[in-house]
Specification:
Number of strands: 0
Number of helices: 6
Shape: globular
Distance between the termini: 29 Å
Number of domains: 1
Order of helices and strands: HHHHHH
Largest sheet: none
């Protein structure tokens, strides 16, 4: 019954701020998606594809790294909720797509982290991994948080 105790403790902590664990999941996923957007914009600036941000340099790189760290942290409670409370389900197409994409998310994250450290890879590898990760977060958000906000409740 250890998992049940952990799940209850998680629920108690989360409902101190949010109205339910599902609301917490939706809002934390939204924060992760917004931070992933910051990742994409700052990466585009680092690669010289955008010019409206400050000059490439330490500030943009710092914003890129910290937005990624915070996005990852926002996904951890969502991951915990999905794996330990909800589990893998496929009752309809929306949930099936969400479950399948969610299964691969941390694998793509690990690949991106490894690609960042390996400078022998071609120049397109890192942007491809980054946009794949951001796209997966978008699909997960569209199949969960958007559904929650439009069909259940838009609020904390």
């Amino acid at each position: 019954m250890l998992v049940a105790d952990v799940a209850q403790t998680y629920a108690d902590i989360v409902t101190a701020v949010f109205s339910s664990t599902i609301a917490a999941k939706a809002w934390l996923a939204t924060a992760a998606l917004l931070l992933a957007g910051v990742q994409v914009v700052t990466a585009a600036r680092i690669y010289g594809r955008l010019s409206f941000l400050p000059e490439r340099g330490a500030a943009v790189a710092r914003a890129h790294r910290w937005s990624g760290r915070l996005a990852f942290l926002c996904t951890l409670p969502v991951f915990f909720h999905c794996v330990t409370i909800l589990g893998f389900q496929t009752p309809d197409a929306r949930v099936a797509v969400h479950a399948i994409v969610g299964t691969f998310l941390y694998g793509v994250f690990a690949a991106k982290v490894l690609i960042v450290r390996d400078h022998s890879l071609p120049g397109w590898a890192l942007p491809t991994a980054g946009i794949t990760l951001a796209s997966m977060l978008a699909v997960l958000w569209l199949t969960s948080s958007l559904w929650y906000f439009t069909n259940v409740r838009f609020g904390f």
